[in-house]
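Lab notebook, design round three. We kept the backbone fixed and only want residue identities now. Task for the bench partner: fill in a sequence for the structure below.
Input structure tokens:
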């Protein structure tokens, strides 16, 4: 499609959407001019993630964001970030435009080079997060999501070792037999989205649900950036005597993702001029992750008078072929076994009270994981200073084919946990939550190394004899919480919370630095919540003091080294609200102010073989902007027409721990949805990056001053047709 023709089409689309949003057109709508009684009763959203029981978000003494089905259905949902973006205090981006996402909540997760860390991710109550806090999104079917609940900061009963917060992805229920559909979507950059959902009541007690999804994109605007995923899931629901339920799911996922190379500053400027990312100077041109996952989950719920028992067992097995910086990881299979035995007891202690508690156990077992050299390389002869002989320095990879073996590894990560929380309601206005989690995590890792990638010489080094390393480390995490919520009237409520949560290092961080300690985050938070029929408001002010925070230091060689900072102070404000403008139009606004600083931190800067401690106390933490805000307009007409316009801004941030330079971020990165539904048919058009901004999803600077850029995706449109039956 020619660019001028495409821009003309977009201008027409935008003009149409603005006319729809105009007050004049709203007034011309006969349905809008009719007087209809509007109830003054407040409307609230139900959440289960903060306290493991269903409660209105206004009553929960914590900062919670719930993304409902209507919001999710307005997005194409190629990636979880499509629905989550714009949430205050939550920074989410994708470096590759695929299913992967870089996720940060209140500064937690920013040290992750890939995936999500320091944040507990759950799907229907099952942890998607490993004991070492690494989360994967590759086996989450984004087309089978009912709602997403985000609890920010320490204090969640689900959140073992996750100081940043908890994200729970709740899929569509097997007992919902009215949501059958077929969805077909195609778009620019080779986007494809195919999905079907079929559910059936076999009899009064049995229901089954079959779903399947295929998502793909070629992302031809840059090299080595294709992704392709398939998911197939079978769910069964059984209603037993006495009101008990048993829900079981078995799913299979295959996910292939190419991870594009980073850019230098000059290469990023070339991308901004052309909108294309072609040949780069990066060594690592063929990173990726290619995985298959089997997932089983079974949960039972039975009420015995005032006691509700909720046991759960789950198992998943995943394997991956994962070329990364310096090596190719080839894991033939990790088996994950888990159980969560939960109960809820309603009683009277100080008014109507509920005690929630339980125990959890999990084992992640990996046997025979291997690391390999890249087989196909371009090299150049390099003569290091000193007595070290010349080596073949790697210039760039030519493929992701594996070469000689570098190491083998067996690992077992175990987690045992206990959680209790008492919810007291002394009167109709006051709610008190008092509880804790205690978790014990053990990492037992044995590695036999036959060689390694040398970051200094940028070449492979083969050992004269195999080197065996054994890591056996245990962390105990105690996470208490006290929260109070007080209803001022039927609309407004105040809350306050004190909470603590530990954060363990990841498996790779422990191996690179066995001296790492677990971080400890203590959070003090107050807030105001309001729920009305035509508007809502959430305001949170918090201060989180983190001791021994695990910090990433990007050295001149390109290696990320990890160390504990003495103390970090994080202060912030989050504001979220929406208001009805007439009967059909809603205006939403979100804002977050973040001031995160190292109180005590000596960064170890490497120069050759020498490490020098440089004081960074008082500096701001990198990557997190001081200001983040989002604006949205939603329009829904009884005729079946609907529209959504959202603009997100990500303020400037420091690129490094030394605070030497800021990246400007981006302003008003805009997405548009136009949709129409008639009977069982619906069609929607989603346009991301409407004004084709050229921006970076992340900019980093190493300790020598070299900058690394990851380009954001250009404008792309996708058309989707859905048939519901």
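Proposed sequence:
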């Amino acid at each position: 499609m020619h660019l001028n023709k495409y821009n003309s089409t977009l201008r027409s689309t935008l003009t149409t959407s603005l006319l729809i949003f105009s007050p004049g057109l709203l007034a011309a709508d006969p349905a809008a001019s009719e007087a209809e009684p509007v109830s003054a009763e407040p409307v609230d959203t139900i959440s289960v993630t903060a306290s493991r029981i269903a409660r209105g978000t206004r009553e929960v003494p914590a900062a919670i964001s719930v993304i409902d089905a209507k919001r999710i259905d307005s997005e194409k949902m190629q990636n979880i970030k499509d629905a989550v973006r714009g949430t205050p205090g939550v920074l989410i981006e994708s470096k590759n435009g695929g299913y992967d996402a870089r996720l940060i909540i209140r500064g937690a997760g920013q040290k992750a080079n890939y995936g999500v860390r320091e944040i507990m991710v759950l799907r229907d109550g099952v942890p998607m997060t490993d004991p070492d806090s690494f989360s994967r999104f590759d086996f989450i079917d984004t087309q089978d999501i009912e709602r997403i609940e985000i609890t920010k900061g320490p204090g969640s009963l689900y959140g073992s070792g996750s100081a940043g917060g908890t994200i729970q992805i709740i899929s569509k229920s097997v007992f919902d037999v009215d949501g059958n559909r077929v969805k077909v979507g195609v778009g620019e950059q080779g986007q494809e989205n195919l999905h079907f959902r079929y559910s059936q009541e076999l009899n009064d007690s049995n229901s089954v649900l079959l779903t399947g999804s295929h998502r793909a994109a070629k992302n031809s605007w840059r090299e080595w950036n294709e992704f392709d995923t398939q998911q197939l899931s079978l769910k069964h629901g059984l209603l037993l005597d006495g009101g008990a339920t048993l829900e079981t799911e078995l799913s299979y996922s295959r996910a292939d993702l190419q991870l594009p190379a980073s850019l230098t500053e000059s290469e990023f400027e070339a991308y901004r001029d052309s909108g294309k990312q072609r040949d780069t100077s990066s060594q690592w041109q063929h990173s990726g992750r290619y995985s298959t996952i089997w997932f089983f989950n079974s949960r039972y719920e039975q009420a015995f008078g005032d006691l509700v028992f909720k046991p759960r067992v789950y198992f998943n097995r995943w394997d991956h072929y994962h070329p990364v910086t310096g090596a190719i990881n080839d894991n033939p299979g990790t088996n994950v076994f888990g159980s969560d035995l939960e109960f809820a007891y309603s009683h009277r202690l100080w008014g109507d009270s509920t005690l929630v508690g339980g125990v959890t156990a999990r084992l992640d077992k990996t046997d025979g994981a291997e690391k390999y050299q890249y087989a196909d390389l371009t090299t150049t002869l390099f003569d290091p200073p000193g007595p070290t002989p010349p080596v073949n320095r790697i210039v760039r990879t030519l493929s992701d084919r594996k070469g000689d073996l570098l190491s083998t590894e067996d690992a077992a990560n175990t987690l045992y946990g206990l959680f209790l929380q008492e919810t007291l309601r002394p009167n109709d206005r006051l709610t008190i939550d008092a509880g804790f989690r205690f978790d014990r995590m053990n990492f037992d890792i044995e590695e036999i190394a036959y060689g390694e990638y040398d970051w200094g010489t940028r070449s492979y080094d083969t050992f004269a004899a195999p080197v065996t390393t054994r890591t056996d480390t245990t962390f105990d995490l105690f996470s208490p919480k006290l929260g109070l919520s007080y209803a001022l009237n039927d609309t407004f409520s105040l809350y306050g919370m004190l909470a603590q949560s530990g954060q363990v290092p990841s498996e790779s961080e422990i191996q690179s630095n066995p001296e790492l300690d677990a971080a400890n985050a203590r959070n003090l938070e107050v807030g105001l919540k309001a729920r009305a029929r035509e508007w809502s408001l959430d305001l949170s002010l918090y201060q989180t003091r983190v001791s021994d925070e695990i910090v990433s230091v990007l050295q001149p060689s390109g290696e990320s080294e990890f160390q504990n900072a003495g103390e970090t102070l994080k202060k912030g404000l989050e504001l979220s609200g929406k208001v009805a403008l007439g009967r059909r139009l809603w205006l939403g606004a979100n804002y977050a102010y973040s001031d995160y600083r190292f109180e005590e931190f000596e960064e170890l800067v490497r120069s050759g073989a020498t490490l020098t401690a440089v004081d960074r106390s008082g500096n701001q933490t990198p990557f997190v902007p001081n200001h983040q805000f989002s604006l949205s307009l939603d329009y829904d007409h009884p005729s079946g027409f609907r529209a959504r316009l959202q603009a997100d801004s990500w303020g400037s941030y420091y690129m490094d721990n030394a605070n030497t330079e800021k990246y400007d971020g981006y302003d008003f990165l805009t997405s548009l949805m136009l949709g129409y539904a008639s009977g069982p048919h619906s069609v929607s058009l989603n346009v991301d990056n409407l004004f084709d901004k050229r921006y970076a999803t992340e900019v980093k600077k190493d300790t020598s001053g070299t900058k690394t850029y990851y380009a954001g995706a250009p404008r792309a449109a996708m058309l989707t047709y859905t048939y519901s039956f």
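Keep this in mind before ordering anything: Residues 1-40 have pLDDT under 50 and may be disordered.
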